[in-house]
Amino acid sequence: MSIIHKHIDEIFEYDGSQINPSWAFQEFGVYGSSIITWIGPVNITPDNLKDFADVGLEIKSNYMVNFICEFFDQQPPNMRIAYLRQRLIVMIFREILTEYGIKTKREGDDIFVDDGKLSISIASISLSSAKIHFALNLEDKGTPDDVETIGLFDIKDENGTQIFNKDNLSDLINETASRFIDELQTIENDISKTKVLG
Known about the structure:
InterPro entries: aa-tRNA-synth_II/BPL/LPL, DUF366. By secondary structure, the protein is of the alpha+beta class.
């Protein structure tokens, strides 16, 4: 499976509409399976909520790294596979944080650092594709008052030094997307070389 990663330098808001099918093609002319990343605020409007458990809740943040993933390899699209891939990108990102010496906790598809919620995520399907939105707070600003949150720029090492900043953020984004793509392609390769039972 070929997957394109495209980072958008423009800052714009994620309002939930970007989870709609073929958004990457309609907005940026990106064909096929893709990962689109950008930095911007999140403020999901009620009509764009996809998780029934989130109805009535505020999902917002002033400053986040956003990943929109879309896959066309399963026809018809499979909700279970979409959620398994969502968990995969979450765990890959946790693995990267561990390599930076950052201790994390995962509850489902949510990542926590020092009891602060670092990430949000949703997976869903349309008639033609599977979609994932995965986003990480950069700062603990503009988030719901009833949720303790933390941003990547708030995380410090044992010496009190900021680990992530604007200078190394693009490396973090690219590394996450690259590892996710590599993992999915490795799975495809393993499938193609495995003898079936029976």
